[in-house]
Amino acid sequence: MSHPAALITTEQLASILDDPNLRLYDCTTYNEPVPPGSDVPYRAVPGDKTFADGHIPGADFLDLQGEFSDTSLFLSHGGGPWPFMEDRRVQYAKTAAEFGRLPQLLPARPKAVLVITGHWEADAFTVSTSAHPPMVYDYYGFPEHTYHIKYPAPGQPALAAEVKALLARAGFDCREDANQGFDHGTFVPLGLMYPNADMPIVLLSLKATYDAAEHIRVGQAITSLRDEGILIVGSGLTYHNMRGFGRAESKPVSYDFEAYLNEAISNPDAARRNAMLIDWENAPGARLAHPREDHLLPLMVAAGAAGSDVGKRVFVDEVASVAMASYVFG
Predict the structure, then answer these.
(1) Distance between CA atoms of 320 and 330, rounded to whole angstroms?
(2) Radius of gyration of the chain (CA)
(3) Measuring CA to CA, which residue among 285, 296, 280 is closest to residue 244?
(4) What average pLDDT does this structure show over 105-132?
(5) Does 107 have pLDDT greater than 50?
(6) S-S: 308 plus which of 43, 160, 163, 208, CB 3.0-4.6 Å?
(7) pLDDT tens-digit profile of 149-165?
(8) Of residues 269, 264, 250, the one with CA closest to residue 324
(9) Nearest to 223, CA basis, from 67, 40, 62, 42
(10) 60 near 22, Cβ under 8 Å?
(11) What CA–CA distance (Å, rounded) separates 181 from 175?
(12) Confidence band, pLDDT 50/70/90 cuts, at residue 47
């Protein structure tokens, strides 16, 4: 205990219960056992039920897990720099509105955001270390002005170093990239969430081997960042088949595959959730929805970082005849 003077006895507490300036919170948390084979040693649950049965007079209950830990998100970021084209903005009107209100759903304003985007992969997991990340225009055939978009959010080298250390501690080879910048999987959703570009952002790459289980383990290795107020965002798409966009036959494929993902992420058993995500290729229409899983793997990292928190679907938009869903954990 680094500050023992902050502790008081029960007698001292009883003597000040009538103080009108006293703010008293019960933060009881219980560690419940989990089924054999689960990915977490226990499930942390708030003690609100026992609080309702009896508590110190005048106390309120505060859920440390839900109210003071940040969330992890998976966002379907859409196609190209759509917010910067009037016709596309109309098509993605629902996504634009939902991304804009996401900060209101968070327990608090994050200190920074760690983004895992489907547009950056490397031979090993890699973190961006620039204090002033550049822009990456990794799309083709769009209007000239979309190649001059600026989103000057700062990086945070200290957070990058912490991510690298956490991964190294978990046995992962993690490298650094001082030149990696913001692709549209980053500046589109974050630009709508934080239009003032005042939120520090660090990027973490996918690993080019595309091992779903390994990406879940990476998420598990960085989950402690949430307790430090870091928002973890996986940015991809629940459907990403370039040949399938705009085709009527793609619609049922996209909805069937998203239904599988939603069933997985909303499973209250983290081990079962992760097993379903690892087994994604056996889901209905899996390879029609994702011929390559680059836009799906960010979900694996977000789910791994969720720990025992149950996911839920935030919204589903339909653009180019396919479903595009986004999820929140915690």
Answers:
(1) 30
(2) 21
(3) 285
(4) 96
(5) yes
(6) 43
(7) 999 999 999 999 999 99
(8) 250
(9) 40
(10) no
(11) 15
(12) confident
